[in-house]
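Handout, page 2. Input:
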Amino acid sequence: MKKEYAKHNEEFKKMIVNLCETSKDKTMSDIAREYGITRNKKT
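Output:
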């Protein structure tokens, strides 16, 4: 059985990248956990 992944729109992706680049008090793992996403990039 193949696992289904959430599909996020470009606006959401840009927001997450911006948070990761600008957040001083949260790690990428913190942000990923908060938004229910993984840190792994899809290849």
